[in-house]
Design brief:
This protein is of the alpha/beta class. Helix content is 41%, strand content 25%.
Length: 241
Amino acid sequence: MHFTSQQRLADGILEREFDLGEIPGVLWTPTSSPAPLILLGHPGGLRRMYPRLAGRARQSAAYGFATATIELPGSGDRTPSADAEQARTDLHRALAAGEPVDEIVDRLVLPLVERAVPEWQTTLDALLSLPEISGPVGYSGGVIAIGVRLALVEPRIAAAGLFAGSFVPRVMFDEARRVMIPLHVLLQWDDEGNDRQQALDLFDAFGSREKTLHANMGGHTGVPHFAGDDAARFFVRHLRS
């Protein structure tokens, strides 16, 4: 992990950009350390997503958590995937025409999960080697299919807050049934880009004994501020006990 820049934010949080091989990312650490870590998932385009990610990082730091995020494969300044771009185009066309999308979702999401999850695990190896970072670890955000796979295969993740705002391949429902860690799932009821019933079916499929569905009225970007506070308290219960 090579740090490329750093700045001290107004509330004392240290923000550092890093490269891990070809993977760019950002790490935010609070004034007190070592701190438990929350991995911040997002749909790609790190610079475009930065304002929202930094806001989530500041909110988490107020509860004593360090946070980190990385750019997804094929997004931002990383080498784009022609197959993913074609699948995305096909998905938009099929949705507009009211056609079945399961096969297209598989083509778009499954290769992303297969590439992104090992990158998150490599990043986690590097982050936990830093003296200012400690366990346990949480995962927060989307793409929800990435969160499902990480929750299943990465034993260092103790709890996950998942954003139900993206399509999930049907084959991953079997993986969801084997997820056992505590979950806090956020659903925007009127999310124009999400299949609400599929999100509800996925929540039902999770095998976790503790799982909470937090549903709010509004579209994809209309998440109320208090929803973030509720998610933060979820992580306090499971990462700071």
